[in-house]
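dude i think i finally got it to work??
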Amino acid sequence: MRGRLRPGIRAYNPGGAIRVQLAVINDKSNVMLERKQLHEYQVKGVQHIIDNEFCTLFLDMGLGKTVTTLTAIKDLLDNCIISNCLVIAPKKVTQVTWSDEIKAWAHLKDLTISVIDGTVKQRREAYEKKADIYAISRDNIVWLVMEYGGVKLPYDMVVIDELSSFKNYASKRFKALRKVRKFIPRVVGLTGTPSPNGLIDLFAQMYLIDQGERLGKSITAFRDRFFRPNKRNGDIVYSYALKSPQEETEQQISDLISDITISMTAEDYLKMPDRINIYDRVELSPKVMAQYKEFEKEQVLELINSDEPISAASAAALSNKLQQFANGAIYDADRKVIELHDEKLEKLEELVEAANGSPVLVAYSYKHDLDRIMKKLKAYKPVKLEKPEQIAEWNAGKIKVLVTHPASAGHGLNLQKGGHTLIWFGNTWSLELYMQFNARLYRQGQTHPVTVHHILTTGTVDEKIIKALEGKKQTQDGLMQSIKELMEFYSKK
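look at this
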């Protein structure tokens, strides 16, 4: 992979000041709630953070960097090494992901978190609260630094989630953190793709970690060491090329940062399963959830009052309406689109951004889903799968976001050479379609474990669909059972 660094991994140190229990994996459930269920590579990551006052974890998507980091924070807090921690991350990640991980793991349940978000007044109230962890979006970090005078932040530890978003040394967010960096006792950088656009991206990121000790105190020094001017106009240089071959330069840089860096790829550390299922939950606001429940009730009562026996067709029609609502938009009687919420779209964008340029295959269910997805992901240049030549382009790595209906690509297409990340924006009752579409990436010739994301709207039909798929129920059985349960529920009211 272009620009992918794989430094040597620090060995687990039995002589460290704080001990981390080695994990034993014997639970195959999707939700892991106890510390003993951490993977051994995650335990190494925990110890790495504890042993190093400043360090980086380059972890593939799906390797659990958040729980790894939270466990280290918990140990550092418990041992009075730190009293608080600031997490800088993409907005949605600060709002949801870190809090969700705390709630999901028993050993983290006592951690308190304050999200610095909203209006200026709300942000100030949030940073004034007493908490173990403060989470702020990267877009607000300049504001926070200025709030504290632009010199020093009152945190013992700073975690930069998606460190690669600080790759631009000329950006305001980089300059703001650079000013306060020397006053931060502990810094951790997390990312899956440290150099998405090339090795030159590494300078700014590593400077925020070690203040230039390894790669140079300035971008000029870094460029002079590893690069030469490529495209230029007189004294103005527009681009740089490597002085040495790519692999040689990667190794040189890897050697320089290996003492503070752990690099983990899924294929190296996830022996089982070869396919990673991730369930990305989104929550509707109380108002919208109430609307969903009322909509569900109306549709079910309409079916009950029709006096017609329930059929596969009527059950499917009802489910389709509920699925549309869960996805964020519905068709009215005139086939006009009524948009209801953007929760799934926000999560989709977050997942695509987290991929950092790694190709992503997106499955949609309805025409209005497609339209909204293409609009939301416009910046990532999404392509709708329509032509045979697009398959070759995908497999050649020329398409970064490929959007398709599962029925259009459920059989016979080999897409495994183009990527290993699949996102179900809309979920399907069809076990066959589900398995066939997943098999576009998860098949012979795939060299990476496949990560399958399912975006689920909590409290909706999405949960019933996933339950049926996990139980390997056939389409009609799972669908019919779900609709019958709804009919029984509302008949009693």
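Residues 416 and 445 are 7 Å apart (CA to CA).
im so relieved honestly
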